[in-house]
User: Fold this.
Amino acid sequence: MENQGQTASNSNESKTLLMLSVGALVVFLLLVGGIYFWVSKKNGGQVVFPAGINYLAPQTATTTQSTAPLYNYNALAASADWLTYSGKTHAFSFEYPKGLTPLTFPNDTADTVTFKVSNVPPELDLMFLVETISSRDATFTGKQEAFVRNYWKFFSGLKGLNSITPFTNEKGLVGFKANYTTKGNSVTADNYFFIIPGDADHMFHIADIFPSEGKVVFDRIVNSLTNKVATVSPSRTP
Assistant:
């Protein structure tokens, strides 16, 4: 009888511990979800990520995309319901579909912005940033084309320039479309570098992080980029 009592007692203790563990897990998940929701709302619909290390853009030969598109990109591109994102540190703005959420970084002087459009972590897959030329190599200050041609030298995984062509977007920003060769002999996605009028030390850099079916959205974002801050920005309210 004494052994049966001990067995019953141990069983009850195990059930109690299991219930406490499940309860603690539920509370933790609710807390994390609440923090994520609060941060998203506090930043006007923009989710803030801790600062990460950026990559030039996914390699077309090696980056693994999700098995199915995360969005209906044709519908997003055709939609009239686009919002305007404006820079916090630098003067620029671009349009993006309401169905995408801009992801930004706290205290980021490069005004980095990206979107979650693949299974690559967003903090490693940046779409837009303002390049400070002198922080890479001061000898290229005022020599924007040379900076773009030599941009690969700042990344250990790259070995050279693959192609570069002049490019002007629909807003009249002038710059270059370039891609680079990796040490694995693949080619990076296209990168667009725009000259900022009157600023010899900065360039707008926008990388194609979208899967092939999302090119229609990416092209519209590129062509909407301007060095002017929108007077009225229909960004999401907190």
Summary: The longest helix spans residues 2-42. The chain has two domains: 1-42, 47-224. The CA atoms of residues 92 and 227 lie 4 Å apart. The chain has a mean pLDDT of 79.
